[in-house]
Design brief:
By secondary structure, the chain is an alpha+beta fold. It has eleven helices and 14 strands.
């Protein structure tokens, strides 16, 4: 019998990319569309692994759309439509299904787009797959590549709230202050577009898998390293009071689900970027490595965070 082993999502993607060829590691695929680019992304979500039991069907629908729109935002694009494939278990209450689709509709409507269609099937477990599209001018598109040593590393918003929400759920606090951040993510469409229009950003992605893992992705594609200043990390309001600073920092760096944008800016353009969005300077790009600077001392950052893994077996 073949011995089973786990492979991480990122390692599996690298493996299949050699089979498919020409797969770009970015938030969206990019297609030529005349004077603009069409960007497209897809994300699959499952009842057991992605939707906590306390989630309402409306929140399930909202999240399915939001995670896809976040990828469109990371490219600096304006969303143009969403497709959703739904796998519904037998015996599901009609009101439950109605509320999922209300979540789809409300999320697309909140960000200036709509559900264009999709597919529906009967499955053993609730499975929802979103597909989002958007357009961006060719000279404004923002990708994970493009950062250079000396660029300033920035983020929108604050960090750690979604991770704190998951921790509260694990502690049995389903009405905690951070739980909504986890269950109702907000894609940064407006901020992504404003940064694109500012012409200040050299590289960008969302941090849905956590800051450390996202910085590792950004580092790999751009061919640079990063120094992250611990004292600069913008912790979500109330996280230190609820969990202490050390745990708050761990959640901000390691936990996923925040859906903020992390990006690099040329030093000469930081003023323009800060006029475009409310940003926090986290550190700067260097030649190599991921580093945390604390009190003048440097320590390597392990690129860990939220990541799926797959059990595989070797062929005999």
């Amino acid at each position: 019998m073949a011995q089973g082993s786990f492979i991480s999502e990122r390692d599996l993607i690298k493996r299949i990319s050699t089979i498919l060829g020409s797969i770009v590691n970015d938030d969206c695929a990019v297609l030529d569309s005349g004077d603009r680019y069409l960007v497209a992304t897809t994300d699959m979500l499952h009842r057991k692994s992605d939707f906590p039991e306390v989630m309402t069907p409306w929140q399930i629908g909202w999240m399915t759309v939001a995670v896809n729109l976040s990828d469109v935002a990371a490219m600096g694009a304006e969303p143009s439509g969403v497709l959703v494939a739904t796998g519904i278990p037998q015996g599901t209450d009609l009101a439950f299904i109605d509320n999922i689709f209300s979540g789809f509709s409300d999320c697309t409507g909140a960000f200036g787009t709509r559900v264009l269609g999709g597919d529906m099937d009967s499955t053993d477990e609730l499975n929802l797959t979103g597909f989002a599209m958007g357009f961006v001018e060719k000279d404004l598109i923002l990708m994970r590549s493009g950062a250079s040593p000396g660029d300033i590393l920035c983020t929108t918003g604050t960090l750690g709230a979604a991770g704190a929400g998951l921790l509260q759920l694990q502690m049995g606090e389903d009405k905690g202050a951070f739980v909504k951040n986890l269950l109702e993510p907000v894609p940064k469409i407006k901020e992504g577009r404003a940064l694109a229009l500012s012409r200040s950003v050299t590289a960008m992605m969302d941090n849905s898998d956590g800051l450390a893992l996202s910085l590792s992705d950004l580092s790999e594609v751009s061919g640079v390293g990063f120094v992250l200043k611990e004292e600069a990390i913008p912790l979500a309001r109330g996280i230190e009071e609820a969990f202490g600073r050390d745990k708050g920092l761990e959640l901000a760096v390691r936990a996923g689900g925040d859906f903020e944008l992390i990006f690099t800016v040329k030093p000469s353009r930081i003023e323009a970027a800060s006029k475009a969005v409310d940003l926090t300077i986290l550190g700067h790009a260097v030649e190599e490595g991921l580093w945390m600077e604390t009190g003048g001392k440097m320590k390597r950052i392990e690129p860990s965070g939220y990541e799926h893994s797959v059990m595989t077996s070797a062929s005999s």
